[in-house]
């Protein structure tokens, strides 16, 4: 059996917020409780979303919370050669094809699916005359059904053809998609266990299919409930979730552990961050995690207070 290797993979489009800390602390605790490694990967492939200096700020915040990672942080932007090699393998298998469809065209022609409209297959048999490719899509077989046992959410089953369709792996601007890059990166790091938010559960079958086609191992998955605001929206940069205040690290660790059903003592909120995390690792129990996809966030945003 391989040694447990987990990871936390934030996007440097804004500072960490309470929702980010749920994934960071849970993945850290699960890794350390199993005697494993915990890595940090900066998902900086989507250049228009990347904000200068944010990646360094994320790392400083993790350090302030005593979330100390193994090895050096990995940056997706440094892995493009590995992505091209993986894409070449799919090409040799005849598993990708060029597509000229715009997002608008996909919306207008696709039936409702797991995460938006299902691709209609318009370019499966070749590009329309006079049109240029906007992307490369993975060819999904008609009978492709992927299921996996999520360690918290239970059995997840998805018919990729009817719920997603042929999906984009590479765009004409030279950018690889999240699903594709994530699969390659996890294999490069030797990741055995992925603990992340349930907002990514519907994309997991795509990643498992890519793992199988590329001959890569499939990690174990545990999808946590995401924190939502008073409008039922996931806390994110897009919903203007407030950044966490590193000076309140122990309070935030306490709130995250309560959110995750770990029953921390009230005094933990006043301990040094490292001591609080030591308690969390020693008492970590997966069976206490709430098997929900979303839970209301605490009223306190734990953001810095400026005077």
Report mean pLDDT, rounded to a whole number: 91
Task: Output the CATH topology of the largest domain.
Answer: Rossmann fold
Low-confidence stretches: none
Class derived from helix and strand content: alpha/beta
User: Any idea what the CATH architecture of the largest domain is?
Assistant: 3-Layer(aba) Sandwich
Cα-atom radius of gyration: 20 Å
Helix content: 25-40%
Strand content bin: 15-25%
What is the H level of CATH, i.e. the homologous superfamily of the largest domain?
A: HUPs
Q: How would you spell out the order of helices and strands?
A: EHEHEHEHEEEEEHEHEHEEHHE
Number of domains: 2
The beta-strand count equals 14
List the topology elements.
Elements: E1 5-8, H1 18-33, E2 37-42, H2 54-64, E3 74-75, H3 80-92, E4 96-99, H4 103-109, E5 112-113, E6 116-117, E7 135-138, E8 145-150, E9 154-159, H5 160-163, E10 167-171, H6 178-189, E11 193-197, H7 204-214, E12 220-224, E13 226-228, H8 249-259, H9 273-283, E14 294-296
Parallel strand pairs: 1-2, 2-3, 11-12, 13-14
Antiparallel strand pairs: 4-7, 5-6, 7-10, 8-9
Helix pairs in contact: 1-8, 1-9, 6-7, 8-9
